[in-house]
Design goal:
single chain, about 100 residues, mainly alpha, binds zinc ion
């Protein structure tokens, strides 16, 4: 184990560890942190947008999964649909149009 990991950032003024890079000030000495140590407004905005999108996608995927489980597509009777139409029994030549 290394004593200092690259992602361990510290306030250059007091050495206090930076936990929240979205906060542009040192939480200990309240001095503004150099821009390379904190996220810019654009980065924070981009991250929030990304997080929102991911949360939405996760919620959608979960809903879809839950819906598929409770919906149970096995109820659809494809046999009755096939017998209802003129094609299928005729060997496929009569339906679909074209040649
Ligand atoms: Zn500080």
């Amino acid at each position: 184990m290394t004593p200092a990991t690259p992602d361990t950032l510290r306030c250059p003024a007091c050495g206090f560890r930076i936990f929240n890079r979205r906060y542009p000030m040192c939480e200990s000495c309240k001095l503004p942190l150099p821009p390379e140590l904190v996220y810019s407004r654009e980065q924070i905005l981009a991250m929030q947008t990304q997080e929102a999108l991911e949360a939405k996608a996760r919620a959608n995927a979960k809903r879809k999964r839950d819906g598929a489980n409770s919906g149970d597509g096995g109820d659809i009777d494809f046999g009755s649909i096939g017998s209802d139409s003129s094609c299928g029994d005729g060997g496929g030549g009569g339906c679909g149009g074209g040649d």
